[in-house]
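pipeline stage [seq->struct] | target=Porin | organism=Paraburkholderia ferrariae | residues=383
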Amino acid sequence: MKKTLMVAALTGVFATAAHAQSSVTLYGLIDAGITYANNSGGHSLWKASSGTVNGSRWGLRGAEDLGGGLKAIFTLENGFNIQNGTLGQSSRMFGRQAFVGLASDQFGAVTLGRQYDSVVDYLAPLSNTGTQYGGTIAAHPYDNDNLNNSVRFNNTIKYSSVNYAGFKFGGTYSFSNSTEFANNRAYSFGATYNYAGLNVAAAYLHANNNINNQQFNSSSFSGAQAGDYTFGAGRQSTFGGGVNYTFGPATAGFVYTQTQLGNAINISPAQSGTSKGISLGGNSARFQNFEGNIRYALTPALSLAGAYTYTRANFGGGVNPNYNTVALQSDYALSKRTDVYLQGDWQHVSSNQDGIGAYLNGLGSASTRQDQVAVTVGMRHRF
C-alpha cells in the first residue's frame, strides 16, 4: 500500500514538472478610436475606427520544451474589427498568423504556416508605419512595400536565426501548392544588426502571380497570396534598407524601399480606396519611398513621434504621381498596458497625377482632390 501511494505521489510530481515545461499564452491588442477625414469620396467623414494605428487582434502563443535547447512552438493570431466584431484578413479565423515549428537555442527556428515575410520581420520595425508610432494609417501609398503587412503569405516555410552578437537573419519560401510551381509563389530574405544605439536592416521580397486567372483575389485560393493582395501583377519585387539610431530619449531613422511590378493590372480596391481599384493597364510600374522618422520620450509616459515620406511612382503610360505623406503622433501611457493617442496624417499627390486622389491607408475612400487629412483620437489596450 505504501509503495502504491509513493508511486502515485512521484507520478504526480513528474506530471507537474512535465506540465511546467510547456506553456500557452493568450495575448492581444485592441485599438479603437474616432477619426475625422476632410475628404473621403468627396465628403468630410467622421467614423468610429478600429486598428487606425495597430490592427486589433488576439492570439495564442505556445512552446513545449523538448530538451537539449529544442522547443516546439506555435502561434495562432486572429484579426478583427472592434467596432462591429467582424473577422479581418478576408474573414479568416487566424488571418494574421498561423504557424507551428521547432526552435533551437543554438541553430534558430523553422516554422510552417501563414506568416509574415522578411520585409515585415526585419525592415518594418525601423519604419514609422511598422511600429506603434505611426501604424496602419501612416503606411506608404497603398502600402506598396508591405511594411504595414497588408499581405501575409500562405504555405510558408520560414527560417529565423538566433542572435549572433546583435546580428540576425532569416528567409521565407511560400509554396504555390499547385503544379504551376513558379506561379502564385513568394520568397523573401532579410537581416538586421544592432549595436548599442545603432540598428540597421535590409530585406527583399519577391512574389509571382498567375494574372490570367486572377485567383489570388479569392481567399479560398491555394496560392501564396490569396484574397489580401495589394497589386494585381504578374511579378512583384520589393527591396529596401534602413537605419535607426537611439540617443538618450530620442530615436531617429531613415528607410528606403523600392517596389517594381511586372505585368501590372491594378492596385486593389481595398488598398486604393476606390471601388474598382486603380488600373495599371498591364504595364510595368514602380514605387520609390524615402522616409525619415523620429520619436522622442518627453517623460516615461508621454512620447511624440513623426515621419515624412516622399514617394515617387510610375504607373506606366506617362502617369507619374508623386506623394508627400506626413504622420504626427502624441501618445500617453495610462499604464503598462493601456495608452491614449492623438494622431494626425496628411497626404498630397503632385506632379502628373492624372486624376489620382490622395488616399491615407484604411480610411475607406480616396480623396477627390490632391490632398487628404485625417485626425484620430484613440486608445489601445494590450493583454
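stage status: PASS
auto-comment: Residues 359 and 366 are 5 Å apart (CA to CA). The mean pLDDT is 92.
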